[in-house]
C-alpha cells in the first residue's frame, strides 16, 4: 500500500469477518500508525493490558448497568478473526497506542439501541435492509451473508488489499447511502469523531487508523473532515460515568462459538463461527473441504446414514454451484447447498436456514440441524489466570468449599430441618435463581404447605459457570446480595402479575432473602387488594397461607406481613367471586381459589375481615346465581357445606341434570374441589348420601346424554384419591346388588370414555341393522339328546 498523506485512515469492517481482519492486519503492518482507534467501550481503555492477556478466544467484555429505572447488560464479543481484536493486538505489536472510542455499554445510546440483552457488535443491517436487498437481487443471492462471502470472503488468489479496501468502502457507502442515522447512532458517531480529532492533534507525522463497523465509517470520515484537526479538544474526550446511585461496570467473560452464532440468536456480523475460524486459519479452499468433513463426521456420530456415493454427489454439486455462481472457491453456502441437495430427499416445509437469518425453528429437518451445528463449532473461550474477576466469583468459590459442594460428583440429599442442610439449600437456590450451572434440584418442597423437609440436588456440567458468575456479579459482591437484587428486579418487572409474584415469593423464601421477603410481601399485600384475576389470586392466597401456617423450616410462619397478604387475598376472593359470570366449562384455578379461601377461614380466621357467617352468606348468593359458572356455583355450595351450613343438594342436582348433564359434571367439580371430605363422609338433609343421589340421576340418563356428560363427570371424581374412589365404587356395586372387585373396576385396561363410546357405537349399529332387516338370525335351538 503506498504511503498516504491523509492524517486519518478509516477502515469500515463487518464484525467477525476474516477478510476484514486480514485487511486490518495488513494495513497496520504497512501503515505503521501512531494510534489505532477501535469501536468498543471507552471505559475499558484503562484495562487494555487485562484485555490483551493471553486469553483463549472467544471472550467478551460484559458490561452492566442498574438504577431505579433501568437495567442494561451488553456483550462485546471478540474471537480470533474479529477485526477489532486484530486491530488491538497488531496495533500494540506494531508500537501504536490502541484505544476504544465508543460510548460505554451502559450509556442509553448503546444500551437503548436494542433490548436489555444487547450485543454491541450486532449488525446495523436492519437499518439499511433496502440497500442490501437490492444488492442481493442484483447478484442473485438469497441472503446478505451469501452476498458478503461472494464479494469479500472467498476471493481469488492474490487479491490486493488495496482493492479489497476500495470495494469495502464502496459497499458501505452504498448501504449507508443518504439514510439519516437515528439519535443513538448520531450520539455514538459524534463521540467517536471526538476521539479521532483528539488523536489527530497528537499524531505528528504518523497516521491514525480508525477501525469501526462499516455503517459508521462514512459518517466518521465526514465528521472528521468537517471539524478538522484544528477543532480537536485539548485532551481526550471524557469517558462518561454512571450517574450517582447507579451501579455499573465491565468484566471479561469466557464466550463460546454457540453464543456467537446467528443461528443461536446472536445478531452478529457473521454466522457459523466454526466455519469462519477454518477460513481464517486455512483459507477458502481448505475451509470448504473442512466444512464437508465436519458435517460428515457429525452426521455419522449422530447415527444418520451417509454413504460414500452421497458424499461424492455432495462434493460434485458444491463445486458445480461454486462455478455456476462465479466463485473462485466454494463458499459456505455452496457447500451447504451441495450437502442439502445430495443428502436430503424429503420435502422441506421451510427455507433452508442459511438463506435467511434467525434461530432454527421447531421441526427443522434433523440433517439441517446437524449441518448448522457443524458450521457453529464447539469452541469455548477461557480467561487467562491473571484476569481480574468480580468479587462474587471468589465469594461463591469460598461458600461452595466451606459447604463441601465444590467438587460434588454424586446426588446431594439435604435435611432442611438442620442448620447445615438449610445453609447448603439456600446457597444452591441462590445459584439456581442467578442461572449459574452446576446443580439441578430434582426433589424438594414445591410450595409453602408442602410437608417435605428434604431436598435432593444432582450435580451436572459446570461448563459456563465462570461466565455466569461473572455476569451475575452485576447484582452484587456476595451471593445472598446478588440473589436478592435479581429477585427484586424480577419483582419490579412482574408488575401486577400475581402468579409471577407468588413464585417469586417462594423463591425468596428458599433463598433466605429476608429483607427482600418484606419488600415482596408489601408489594403483594397492595396488589392483591387490586387484583382482577380470581385464579391467579387463588395461587397467591394458597402460597401465602401455606407459608404462614407451616413454614418453620424457612422461618416465616405466622409472619405479620405474610398475614396481611393472606387476609387481603381471602377478602378479595369473595369480592371477585360474587361478580364472576361465565359459560360452560370448569375453570379449575377459580374453584381452587375458593378452596384456598376455605382454608383461610379454617386456619387463619383472625386475618380476614370476612367472617365465617358472612362467607357462608356470600357463598349462598353465588351458588344461586344462574349467571355464575356451574363449577363456581358448585364450589360455593361446597363452601357452605365445609363451613357447617349445608343446603339440600337434591333439587340442585335434579335441576342441573335436567338442564345439561355436562353442567352437572362442572358443578360437581367445584363441589368436590372444596368439600370432598364432607361429600365422602357426610349425608344430605334427606338422610342419604350425595353419591347415591348422583348415581340415581346419572343412571336414569339416556345413553347419548351420558356420553356427553361423561368427561365432566370423570373430571369431577378425579378430586377423590384412589382409596376414596374405591369406596365409592364399592357403594355403587352394593346399590346394584352386584358382586365384584371395586379395585378391578377402577383399573380398566382402556379409557372408560372410549369403552362407553364403543358400546354406544355397537348399539347404534345393531339398531341400524335391525331397521333394515339385516340382523343376524337367532341361532336355532339345539335338539335334545335322545336316549
* pLDDT < 50 runs, ≥5 residues: 1-5, 113-117
Q: Count of DSSP E strands?
A: 11
Q: Strand-residue fraction?
A: 5-15%
Query: What is the arithmetic mean of pLDDT?
Result: 83
Number of helices: 33
Order of strands, main sheet, comes to: 1-7-2-5
| Residues in helix, % | 40-55%
Strand count, sense and barrel status of the largest sheet are: 4 strands, parallel
| N/C terminus separation | 126 Å
- The value of Rg in angstroms is 36 Å
**Overall morphology:** globular
- Label the structural class: alpha/beta
Structural descriptors:
four-stranded mixed sheet, 9% strand, globular, alpha/beta, 787 residues, single chain, four-stranded parallel sheet
How are the SSEs placed, and which strands pair?
Layout: E1 8-13, H1 18-31, E2 35-41, H2 48-51, E3 59-66, E4 71-78, H3 83-93, E5 97-102, H4 108-111, E6 117-119, H5 129-139, H6 144-153, H7 161-176, H8 183-200, E7 208-213, H9 217-227, E8 247-254, H10 257-260, H11 273-282, H12 284-301, H13 308-324, H14 332-343, H15 366-376, H16 391-402, E9 412-415, H17 419-433, E10 439-443, E11 454-459, H18 465-472, H19 479-494, H20 498-511, H21 514-528, H22 534-550, H23 560-578, H24 588-603, H25 612-623, H26 630-642, H27 649-659, H28 661-681, H29 690-699, H30 703-717, H31 722-735, H32 742-746, H33 752-771
Amino acid at each position: 500500500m503506498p504511503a498516504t498523506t491523509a492524517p486519518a485512515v478509516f477502515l469500515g469492517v463487518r464484525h467477525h469477518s476474516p477478510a476484514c481482519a486480514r485487511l486490518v492486519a495488513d494495513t497496520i503492518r504497512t501503515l505503521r500508525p501512531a494510534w489505532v482507534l477501535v469501536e468498543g467501550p471507552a471505559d475499558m481503555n484503562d484495562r487494555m493490558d487485562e484485555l490483551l492477556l493471553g486469553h483463549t478466544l472467544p471472550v467478551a467484555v460484559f458490561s452492566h448497568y442498574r438504577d431505579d429505572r433501568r437495567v442494561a447488560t451488553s456483550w462485546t464479543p471478540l474471537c480470533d478473526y474479529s477485526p477489532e481484536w486484530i486491530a488491538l493486538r497488531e496495533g500494540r505489536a506494531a508500537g501504536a497506542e490502541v484505544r476504544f472510542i465508543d460510548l460505554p455499554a451502559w450509556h442509553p445510546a448503546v444500551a437503548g439501541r436494542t433490548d436489555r440483552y444487547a450485543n454491541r457488535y450486532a449488525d446495523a443491517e436492519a437499518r439499511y435492509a433496502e440497500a442490501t436487498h437490492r444488492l442481493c437481487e442484483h447478484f442473485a443471492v438469497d441472503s446478505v451473508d451469501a452476498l458478503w462471502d461472494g464479494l469479500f470472503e472467498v476471493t481469488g488468489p492474490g487479491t490486493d488489499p488495496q482493492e479489497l479496501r476500495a470495494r469495502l468502502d464502496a459497499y458501505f457507502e452504498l448501504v449507508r447511502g443518504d439514510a439519516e442515522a437515528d439519535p443513538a447512532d448520531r450520539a455514538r458517531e459524534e463521540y467517536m469523531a471526538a476521539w479521532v480529532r483528539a488523536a489527530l492533534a497528537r499524531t505528528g507525522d504518523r497516521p491514525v487508523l480508525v477501525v469501526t463497523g462499516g455503517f459508521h465509517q462514512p459518517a466518521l470520515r465526514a465528521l472528521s473532515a468537517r471539524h478538522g484537526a484544528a477543532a480537536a479538544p485539548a485532551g481526550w474526550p471524557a469517558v462518561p460515568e454512571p450517574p450517582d446511585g447507579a451501579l455499573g461496570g465491565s468484566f471479561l467473560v469466557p464466550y463460546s462459538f454457540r453464543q456467537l452464532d446467528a443461528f443461536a440468536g446472536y445478531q452478529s456480523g457473521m454466522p457459523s463461527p466454526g466455519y469462519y475460524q477454518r477460513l481464517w486459519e486455512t483459507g477458502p479452499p481448505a475451509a470448504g473441504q473442512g466444512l464437508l468433513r465436519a458435517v460428515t463426521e457429525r452426521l455419522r456420530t449422530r447415527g444418520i446414514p451417509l454413504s460414500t456415493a452421497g458424499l461424492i454427489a455432495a462434493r460434485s454439486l458444491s463445486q458445480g454451484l461454486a462455478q455456476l455462481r462465479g466463485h473462485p472457491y466454494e463458499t459456505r453456502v455452496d457447500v451447504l447447498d451441495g450437502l442439502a441437495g445430495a443428502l436430503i430427499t424429503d420435502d422441506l416445509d421451510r427455507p433452508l436456514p442459511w438463506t435467511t437469518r434467525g434461530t432454527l425453528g421447531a421441526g427443522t429437518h434433523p440433517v439441517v440441524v446437524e449441518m448448522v451445528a457443524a458450521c457453529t463449532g464447539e469452541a469455548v473461550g477461557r480467561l487467562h489466570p491473571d484476569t481480574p474477576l468480580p468479587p462474587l466469583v471468589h465469594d461463591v468459590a469460598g461458600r461452595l468449599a466451606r459447604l463441601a459442594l465444590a467438587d460434588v460428583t454424586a446426588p446431594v440429599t439435604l435435611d432442611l430441618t438442620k442448620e447445615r442442610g438449610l445453609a447448603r439449600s439456600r446457597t444452591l437456590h441462590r445459584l439456581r435463581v442467578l442461572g449459574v450451572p452446576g446443580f439441578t434440584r430434582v426433589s424438594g418442597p414445591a410450595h409453602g404447605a408442602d410437608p417435605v423437609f428434604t431436598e435432593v440436588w444432582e450435580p451436572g456440567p459446570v461448563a459456563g459457570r465462570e461466565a455466569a458468575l461473572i455476569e451475575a456479579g452485576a447484582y452484587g459482591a456476595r451471593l445472598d446480595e446478588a440473589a436478592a437484587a435479581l429477585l427484586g428486579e424480577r419483582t419490579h418487572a412482574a408488575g401486577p402479575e400475581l402468579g409471577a409474584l407468588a413464585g417469586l415469593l417462594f423463591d425468596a423464601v428458599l433463598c433466605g432473602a429476608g429483607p427482600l421477603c418484606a419488600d415482596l410481601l408489601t408489594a403483594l399485600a397492595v396488589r392483591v387488594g387490586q387484583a382482577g384475576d380470581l385464579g391467579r389470586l387463588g395461587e397467591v392466597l394458597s402460597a401465602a397461607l401455606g407459608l404462614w401456617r407451616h413454614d418453620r423450616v424457612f422461618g416465616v410462619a405466622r409472619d405479620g406481613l405474610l398475614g396481611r397478604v393472606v387476609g387481603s387475598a381471602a377478602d378479595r376472593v369473595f369480592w371477585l367471586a360474587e361478580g364472576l359470570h361465565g359459560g360452560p366449562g370448569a375453570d379449575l384455578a377459580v374453584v381452587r381459589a375458593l378452596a384456598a379461601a376455605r382454608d383461610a377461614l379454617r386456619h387463619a380466621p383472625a386475618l380476614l375481615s370476612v367472617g365465617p357467617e358472612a362467607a357462608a352468606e356470600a357463598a349462598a348468593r353465588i351458588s344461586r346465581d344462574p349467571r355464575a359458572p356451574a363449577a363456581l356455583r358448585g364450589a360455593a355450595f361446597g363452601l357452605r357445606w365445609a363451613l357447617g351450613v349445608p343446603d339440600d343438594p337434591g333439587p340442585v342436582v335434579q335441576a342441573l341434570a335436567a338442564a345439561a348433564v355436562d353442567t352437572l359434571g362442572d358443578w360437581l367439580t367445584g363441589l368436590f374441589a372444596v368439600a370432598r371430605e364432607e361429600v365422602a363422609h357426610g349425608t344430605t338433609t334427606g338422610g342419604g348420601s350425595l353419591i347415591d343421589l348422583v348415581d340415581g340421576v346419572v343412571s336414569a340418563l339416556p345413553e347419548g346424554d351420558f356420553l356427553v356428560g361423561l368427561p365432566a363427570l370423570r373430571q369431577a371424581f378425579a378430586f377423590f384419591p384412589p382409596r376414596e374412589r374405591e369406596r365409592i365404587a364399592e357403594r355403587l356395586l352394593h346399590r346394584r346388588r352386584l358382586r365384584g372387585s371395586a379395585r378391578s373396576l377402577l383399573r380398566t385396561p382402556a379409557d372408560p370414555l372410549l369403552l362407553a363410546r364403543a358400546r354406544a357405537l355397537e348399539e347404534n349399529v345393531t339398531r341400524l341393522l335391525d331397521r333394515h332387516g339385516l340382523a343376524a338370525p337367532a341361532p336355532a335351538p339345539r335338539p335334545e339328546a335322545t336316549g
